[in-house]
Each structure stands twice: as C-alpha cells, then as structure tokens.
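Translate sequence into structure tokens.
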Amino acid sequence: MAGSKGKSGESGRRTCPGHDFADAAEGALRAGQNKIDRLFDKVRIREIGQDELDLAGFSPAIFRNLNTPEELEAEQRPILRRNIND
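Result follows.
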C-alpha cells in the first residue's frame, strides 16, 4: 500500500501507516478474512521488542488479548475504581 511505504497520496501528503492498516483490515473483514496474519503482506510491519517498549514507557499490559465481554469487564473494573477514587 502506498502509505505503508511512505509515498504520497493523491493530495501530495504522506499517508498514515495506521490508516493503511485500517483500510486493509476493513477490506479483509468485508471479504470474510478474519485472521490478522493475512494482512502482514499488505502493509509494512516492524517487530518491536519488549526492551524498546520499556524504553518508550509502554507496559506489556497494553497488549492484553480480551476475547469476551467478561474479560473486558474484568480489565475495566480496576480502571473504573481508580477513576472513582481519584
């Protein structure tokens, strides 16, 4: 995709890789392709190691995989409690 390689779009501005990924994901979902690994050849990706995430101040918790409404609710509960107590 053009933006994933840093090329300019029709407007002459650089396109955003995040938008490229979202566009590719939307197209895949509409085509019934629900596996994320099928998108890897459509957009440029780069693996980021835990050491790089740590240096940037990101917790591994941001990558939790929540598959059910119950898992989402369990994750939100402590956040909601913190916000109420602040």
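Note: The two ends are 44 Å apart (CA to CA).
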